[in-house]
Amino acid sequence: MRPLYETGAALLTSALLLPATVDAITMNCKELRASGVSFNFEKLGGPKTLSLYESEPPGHRNTTFTIDICKPLKVPSDKKERAKTCPAGTQVCGIEKKITDDDEVFIEKVLPIVRSNVHDGAKLEPKNTLLSKSDSNEDSEKEGLRIEIKGGIYDKKPAKISQRAVIEFLCKRGNEAEERRVRRASDDEDNEEGDDDKDNEGDDKDDDDDDEEEWKKYQKTDDGEGGTLELFKWDPTPDENILRLNWHTKFACEDYEGNGSSGEDGKPSGGWGFFSWFFLLLFLGVVGYFGFFAWVNYSKYGAHGWDLLPHSDTIRDVPYILGDWGRKVVGTFTGGPSRGGYSAV
Fold this sequence. Notes:
The chain is 34% helix and 28% strand. It is an alpha+beta fold. The relative contact order is 0.10.
């Protein structure tokens, strides 16, 4: 049996390390930093859904991806529904379904692509890259931030497949309202064209092409802040599953309000630090001190000029005091004043 003091020490150590562990497995969307630049994506929080449709006769396959960059997705309270979705701590979840021609739906895979969990040691371990400072020539022409986050494991027995998501937040400038209007008009035109195509039935191949064009609309979604989140690529391999997303948003612009450079300590440099406030308060205190006593000397003693200032005699002597101090310093380095060749007896 372990001694009681050892058990207590172990519990105390665990309690002290727990906050650090939690910080290590979570992602702060309010302040994502790379190469000295800080981004605030707090307003992009909340679940966003994208769908990838693939033709797989008979029927088709649908993989739905749900992402929340700020916090884990909610888990259903119902036990049966909970078995159909990703476990607690998941921030990017993929659900792969097989849909038959008879509209029967079969869930084939539940993919916790990005997941943090204290109990099993899963960590997000986000890796941030400022695109304008990237070593890639293609990336250097972009403005924004790329984050690579992981932690999810797909348990495909007997092997386990690691998973990660790569999200590029790309700077989007311009009139967001006008862009949304144009996008809606474009979608309406696509729908009208789709209706016209349905009226003119073609062969099976043309129908499949129309379905694929229709499905592509579900690979992007409006983020509610004038931006667009789109599915760039889903790349499942025997060794690793990688989800790549592009997020076009004004919040990815380096000069957007709320973003800015950050110091080496990782804190934004836009606000005043301790020493700035200290010297400001010190200056105001000195000015207030001299102003108050100048008013007292004027109202009580009728003083004018230098006599208004407190300690005016001392202030008058400052030039002479500095002069004497300067001569002593010079004398120390030069060996003192000359005595004309005579030595002290």
